């Protein structure tokens, strides 16, 4: 298994491009199942998760091709399978997003239940509840969700909580349903909006995306389209936390600052000097950060996917911060590892109290999930001495060439490939 070796204490300086958003690229790739015509997609990040999505699509008979670095064409004109097997769903939960499109277009789908994961239980009951309301007959047996339907029928669906992939799955199902669907309590995340914009280009009739009430008039069929995936606000936010913790001055290009409001505001509170244009952000930090309290929330609140990275900044801040995780019940797995680097953190249920220390010191730590890994990289960049980060396959799921981008900013970081040791 690959590892990262990070020698901390170097300030970051320079410019990098932000990649396309993982959490937008995944539903958008699966939207290819909704039409027999090709989707031409740009700004699709090279990640293990996007590779898994293409593998799953291939298993279903969708032909795809990467052209150049970021362009993917996917064509579902000969779909031959309707099953997302356990081995793929367990490596990537977003595989559940084939459920809506398959039932809507082919009237049939069999998708493995994802099961729990490091950050929480993460059930998919709302996806099932919504599809049932649209008229699908669903049974859950032998670890699989098996759904069948003739043509789905529009309905009013109010999810019990705000769910991002739940909203996406139901929106993809409703675009081909007969009549009107109203999704209440819908997720407002920019990735949901990006998917809706692609679907509209394909001929879907959607209004209200970006609000908590999405109204969809079903159509009989959808066509191909060309679309560029929205920039990754979580990758951008992670690099902003990195410069906040390590110090220095960086410019992020190909980014959408309007999607980063809550993160930018917290980082300014921590002392970063941030300026922005239409598609760039400049961030500088020349002092020790100030501790900032944060409570994770659905968009436009502070993203749970940024919690570990902001915690890394708080570990070396002046003062004490209180971090409340409200979305996932077990998203503090990085705390024990940050403590190994010298952080002073106490957890009580969903709350972490971080007492800022003057310095962290490098150690061997283990990544436990995607954003925990990013948080540990940031803490290691700020630490004195050498940190080895193990199990970085989590990081490779969702960050494109993170170590290369950090090296371009002057960080002392290298990948130790397990292949080199064989
Ligand atoms: C691929 C993708 O886009 N992943 C993102 C998506 O995950 P994902 O879409 O899986 O997360 P949800 O928004 O669905 O989860 C929000 C909360 O609702 C609960 N829930 C959700 C669905 C359901 O049927 N039943 C239920 O109880 C979850 O356990 C969680 O506590 O949104 C999360 C919250 O912003 C992010 O952390 C993930 O990065
Ligand atoms: C939790 C995340 O992803 P996923 O929903 O794919 O597990 C994430 O992107 O931080």
Question: In CATH, what is the homologous superfamily of the largest domain?
Answer: Enolpyruvate transferase domain
List the strand order in the largest sheet: 22-23-1-24
Structural class: alpha/beta
Which ligands appear in the coordinates? uridine-diphosphate-N-acetylglucosamine, phosphoenolpyruvate
Compute the number of strand runs: 24
Principal-axis shape equals globular
- At the first level of CATH, the class of the largest domain is Alpha Beta
Mean pLDDT rating: 97
Residues in helices, as a percent range: 25-40%
Number of domains: 2
Q: Give me the number of helical elements.
A: 14
* CATH architectural name of the largest domain: Alpha-beta prism
Main beta-sheet annotation: 4 strands, mixed
Counting copies of identical and different chains, the oligomeric state is single chain
Our estimate of the beta-strand percent is 25-35%
Instruction: Provide the CATH topology of the largest domain.
Output: UDP-n-acetylglucosamine1-carboxyvinyl-transferase, Chain
Radius of gyration: 21 Å
- Termini separation comes to 11 Å
Low-confidence stretches: none
